Amino acid sequence: MGLPQAGLWLRRLWVLLQVALQVAVGKVCLILFPTRVKQHIVAMNRKNPHFSYDNWAPTLYSVQYFWFVLKVRWQRLEDRTEPGGPAPNCPVVRLSGQRCTIWDFMQG
């Protein structure tokens, strides 16, 4: 299932470089053009009534943002499957809040 180990690490390196570049460019744009970046982010989130730029601005393009995006993108690399192959064992959260994986729901 999934990519061979060497291929996975090369893809992870590529994703690391992509995310680092995106965060660096975003941080530079946030510093050089703060008003334009604010307009763009607010326009993208107009459908969400709970979104507040003032609450989210400190986290944008921060170190925590970098690690979160990197972790999600790396997880997506491993979540792929091939037709006819076993499904990836993705983490899920029950309605009760308990963390488990998809394979925990397999029966028989």
Task: Please outline what is shown here.
This protein has 108 residues and is mostly helical. Helices cover 55% and strands 6% of the residues. It has one domain (5-105).
Work out the helicity level: 40-55%
The percent range for strand residues is 5-15%
What is the overall pLDDT average? 85
Lateral arrangement of strands in the main beta sheet: 1-2
Structure description:
The chain has one domain (5-105). It is extended. A hairpin with a 5-residue loop joins β1 (91-93) and β2. The longest helix is centred in the first third of the chain and has 28 residues, at 5-32. It contains four helices and two strands. It is mostly helical and 108 residues long. Strands 1-2 form a two-stranded antiparallel sheet. α1 runs antiparallel to α4. Helix content is 55%, strand content 6%. The mean pLDDT is 85.
Task: Tell me the layout of helices and strands.
Elements lengths: L4 H28 L1 H11 L8 H4 L6 H16 L12 E3 L5 E3 L7
Antiparallel strand pairs: 1-2
Keywords:
108 residues; mainly alpha; two-stranded antiparallel sheet; 2 strands; extended
